[in-house]
Amino acid sequence: MTSEQIRKLFFEFFKERGHAIAPSSPLIPDDPSVLLTTAGMQQFKRYFTGELNPINDFGSQRTTSIQKCFRTSDIEEVGDETHLTFFEMMGNFSFGPVGTDDPKDRGVGGYFKRSAIYWGYEFITGVLGVDPKRITASIFKGDTEVPRDEISYRIWNEELGLPEGRIMESDRKDNFWGPTGNEGPCGPTSEIYVDGVEVWNLVFNEYYQHADKRLEKLESPGVDTGMGFERLVAVMQGARNVFETDLLRPVTDRVYELAPGLSERAARIFTDHVRAAVFLVADWVRPSNKGAGYILRRHIRRMLAYKIKEDVHVDLLPELVEMVGKKYGGIYPGVSRSEEIIAVLEDERSRFEKAVGQGILELESYKEKGKKIDGQIAFHLYETFGLPFELIKELVPKELAKDLSKEEFEGEFVKHQEVSRAGQERKFGGHGLILDTGELKAGNPEELQKVTRLHTATHLLHQALRDVLGMTVGQMGSDITVERTRFDFSFPRKLTPEEVRGVEEIVNKKIKEDLPVSYTEMLKGEAEKTGALHFFKLKYPEKVKVYFVGKSFDAAYSKEFCGGPHVTHTGEIGKFRVAKEEAVAAGVRRIRGVVE
After folding, report:
1. Could you tell me the strand order of the sheet in which 475-480 lies?
2. pTM assigned to the model
3. Helices (H), 138-212
4. Considering the domain 436-595, what is its CATH architecture?
5. Based on C-alpha coordinates, what's the Rg of the chain?
6. Segment 485-543, tens digit of pLDDT
7. Which residue of 112, 388, 456, 479 sits 20 to 30 Å from the alpha carbon of 251, by its own alpha carbon?
8. Do 248 and 82 meet the contact criterion of CB atoms below 8 Å apart?
């Protein structure tokens, strides 16, 4: 059974059972407590908490998705048979309140443990054809705060006939999941195993964990399930590991063809990391020294370090990037932008080569002084010059590397992540202002009027940049205060003075025309077809507001998904001026603009 067939069967199964198919959200979440999307439920967090209504957005309290996910905690383990950094997570979700919880129900209401367990068992055994004798399950055994999951045990044992010896009971480490980030929905889990390999984790969100770790019962419990796509494909294809599936095997085989004699570990690192890098770049992440950009930089430089370490002279990346694009482009169109993705990776390679030269000189100075290299120094060399741990270990004499601990190096890396995460939380945190959308901030009515002018000017700026630089320009971020607008966008080089002046002139021309600013509401899919611009990082509801600048929607100069506020006519903005144009990261530029 191919991976494409499994993907198709999964969606068909849950669609027949009243689930709306939700597209994968980007790898960059709108949750500031996490750097990357790590689970399928992340995009649905606000439905579980009741902040958003699933009926309004999906037409059902049931959804299903195959979500792009990224986890960096195991990056040093990549190279063995099981660990990946990028992966896909299959899942089905129910946002309460719970109805009959009857597996035969094909409606759109909420469900809970019985339906989730029955459907998991039915899909694995009935649809995929796995012999029921190969199935085992697990449940939460309970502790002082949360009782044993008696209901799940009875469903497995009494209703589905799984013998007692094939139902394991475990503690919170194995059978309690969540929340993602600092707080959120969580609860006990029931896992499904095939031949002893865990394939599906059924999470029953009965609780909300607060930031202080306090658990509170949810009024409307929900279901959040997760099944690793690569792992399931491996089981169904009888593969010994995830690298031998039809998802990854073609890339690994090509790595060996291009670089004969490469170690198995290095080949798997190239396979995982190039796919991970492609998906990050496709979601507009660019290499940098913080946040998600730091994760991307680490992946690229780790591949380049192994290229040096294993004495590979051929350039593997361009062909591997194209292979990933062809494999996944039909599902995730962004990864088909191979030329753009290769350009980002090649730019980082160039930067790495320059930095490595400087880093090696720094390392030589340590060696000349006979200074021992520990994990802290190794991380300094990595953070400052981009020297990956593997390369440092290769270059340092054994007598100076006695204290070189990968654990200490990883500890420093975790600290760096925590600093980045805290920075994100501060960036998006509340300020007690009368307006704080995360993008717009104002402290009084006068400031609100100013940021409203700047906000509308930013829409004009976005379109003007596309007019001058081309349609590949995309929004990477925005932040508006009473002093200025700050707009980040994808573009590979510094703007010329003529280009900056051209952008300014277009914006001021549209202001002078005093065009009306209006909005219309429509379904998200319809809005996307109109060409309306939108920020890829944000999760939009099924019904969106599209603000447009012009006398009619069809003839508008600018169309963009937005919640407001805006001026009623562009003449209210005043004169717009670009105060500064600068680089933010590789392939990302920033304009700071003011209105006068």
Report:
1. 475-480, 485-490, 588-595, 576-585
2. 0.71
3. 150-154, 172-175
4. 2-Layer Sandwich (3.30)
5. 26
6. 999 988 888 999 999 999 999 999 999 999 999 888 888 878 888 888 876 545 567 77
7. 388
8. no
